[in-house]
Amino acid sequence: MNATVAQSLDMADAAHIVLNTIRRPVIMVDADGFITFANA
Question: In the prediction, which pLDDT does 6 show?
Fold first, then answer.
């Protein structure tokens, strides 16, 4: 596995942890494609 794939998997794991902690996640994507998390 190369470093880029490993980094992507780490980011996916971090996002999964964040979404599991928020009971009702709202996921917003801005015009640049960045994801923002907020509680509903």
Answer: 60
Q: Are strands 35-39 and 25-29 parallel, antiparallel or unpaired?
A: antiparallel
Would you tell me how many other CB atoms lie within 10 Å of the CB of residue 29?
Answer: 9
**Residues 6+ positions from 10 with CB-CB distance below 8 Å:** none
**For residue 28, what are the CA distances in angstroms to 9, 17, 25, 39?**
21, 17, 10, 11
pLDDT at residue 15, as a whole number: 78
Tell the residue number behind the tokens 């994801």, with chain if given. Answer: 35
Place of tokens 């794991």: 13
Instruction: Say whether pTM exceeds 0.70.
Output: no
